[in-house]
Predict the 3D structure of the following.
Amino acid sequence: MAEIKVPFHKAAITKDEEDAVLNVLRSGWLTTGKYALEFEKKFSESLGGNEVISLAVNSNTSGMILAMEACGVHQGKAVITTPYTFVSTAACARHLNADVFFADIEKDTYSIDPDKIEEILKQDTTTGYKGHAPYSVCAIVPVHIAGNVCNMKRIMELAEKYSTPQNKIRVIEDAAHSYPSPTKMGYAGTIGDAGVFSFYVTKTITTAEGGMVCTRDKDLAKRMTVMRMHGMDRTTWDRYTSPRASWEYDIVAPGYKFNLPDVLAAIGCCQLDRAVQFYEQRKRIVEKYNKAFSKLDYITLPPDGEGNSWHLYLMRIVPEKLKITREEFAKKMQEAGLGISVHFIPIFHFTYWKELYRDFTAENFPNAERQYSTTISIPLYPDMTDEQAEYVITTVEKLGNENRK
């Protein structure tokens, strides 16, 4: 295996994070407590406040389940999302025994296509659609791939247009890639009924593992707070810090165990303080990439819209210009010592989903398949040096020039 000269990602951890974790360890309180509360407060403030309620969770996946459950996703209901995402986006609905409908992405971006969403919403819900049981769509789940924000204005309009008094269609944003992403409608992750962020180790800020659910709807927040911790009507912090006996509580719903411990929340607090700095550092690398790759006819630059957080740099090769495939190009990059990845394998490539729904094939999602077959995610992280960026650029140029048609 080739020596890694430029890793795909490296978390920006400093002595501040180390000291914060030590403070928690020495405090005697390691699980969800004052640091998690502080993290939630600071996160809401970073999104402009405006009555945003933030709930810290142990992963984006956990947050998506909480948001979907609170928005009425359950057996007999369905959500609409994109096949161009990590599989957990759709799997969360299946955990709640709901159906999933997939809308292709736009031709020139990685974002879900609102026109395809509307095609599904127009279908006869009494007979089912493409191998599904009869259904009632109760949520649209757009995914802001690589931090580039979906067409939320149109998506929100569709949710309102097709809602009925008996069935309100909610919008739940999978904002795993999009912090911080300001738009004219607000920050991505706060535009819909709920938004869920990820703090996995490769994300724009990290807690090692973790996530945040955000909403302005107090009823949704109340439900998610209860379901986050076993359906209990009191938080652990309250039980052990208030005068009321810790064992006095009620279970009001069959909840989950999705809380974020203070050890991880303390890291998040430090990362939040440098989130804008991280963005500026990523943007500096992006500008280098764009300047170099814009001169190459065998490379297509990533889409760049309002509020793009530049979590990932999705470099697309132009197959018509090269003698080798994306797989071969990617392998040669790895052999040259570059840490690379592919975001994402569309969900219709996976056995479970192919067996679950008929017609869930690449042929029915041509835009998602085209983007997948030509995209390589290249290194992009705050502490990346100019020398490392230049090595990525020269490697891409060398491989492209050696393998031109």
About this structure: The chain has a mean pLDDT of 95.
